[in-house]
Amino acid sequence: MVVVNGVLLNVQALQSKLGALADARHTAELAAHKAEAQAAAAQATEAAAQKRADELERAKAEAESAAAAEAAALKHKLAAAEASVASLSGVAPELQAVREALESAGARLQAVIQHVPSSSSNTTGAVKAE
Q1: pTM score, whole prediction
Q2: H-type alpha helices, the chain
């Protein structure tokens, strides 16, 4: 202990308190640096998450656009197929008429063939019609 101008000072106690304050200051600085590093890491994580969210949003928009284009192409193909079916439906009665005409001609030809003599004595090739 030291007495200076009537004040009793304990130098060791003061040095101990100064050391404790220095340690506390150092601990606080370390905690501040750690907090800053954690904040920077959180910002980096947030930035990466935002970047990924933006990428996913772009991918979603591209997928939606591709799906819309494919749907439009399929609608176009469907319309073309429906038009083909409609045009074929219009042809069906005509085909039926041609079929009936061919069947009738075939029947007449069969009748004509039945009236043709089968012997080789027919040298003129004339055919009698009914």
Answers
A1: 0.46
A2: 11-115
